[in-house]
Amino acid sequence: MDARLNYFADPTAGKALKHLMTAGKTIKDSRLPAATQELVALRVSQINGCAVCIDMHTKEAAAAGQASVRLNLVAAWREATVFSEAERAALELAEQATRIADAAVGVTDEVWACAAEHYDEEQLTALVVLVSFMNMVNRLNVITRQPAGNYEPGQFH
């Protein structure tokens, strides 16, 4: 499959992606646990069907030491016993925020309160920005059919 656009060759995309990469680094450097970040990025990308982001975040998480069983079970996290209560709260918030158009309420007060039990305000901010960021990047990749499979851990760091 060939991509519809080459983001790395287009000057407009280059300017925009420079800022997006800076935003991504800001999130990555936040106090939100790195494992949580990768799990959330992976789950949002699964929901949105973004193969290139699934490829990237699965490989980054594995390179950072995440057990394959955890990565394999992200899509079915509710039934899995390998996630902490904090990770489960983050995954639920990520799902509701990603599927915002599917429900009139968006993120429920209960889901927000559960996340707030596990994360402080700075971490919640990073979590919300991460979910929003991943939804945007997923759409950029899905719309233009960016191919997946060739990502190498650390490629964009």
Automatic annotation (TrEMBL):
Pfam families: CMD (PF02627). Residues 15-95 form the Carboxymuconolactone decarboxylase-like domain. This is Carboxymuconolactone decarboxylase family protein. It comes from Streptomyces cynarae. The lineage of its organism: Bacteria, Bacillati, Actinomycetota, Actinomycetes, Kitasatosporales. NCBIfam families: ahpD_dom.
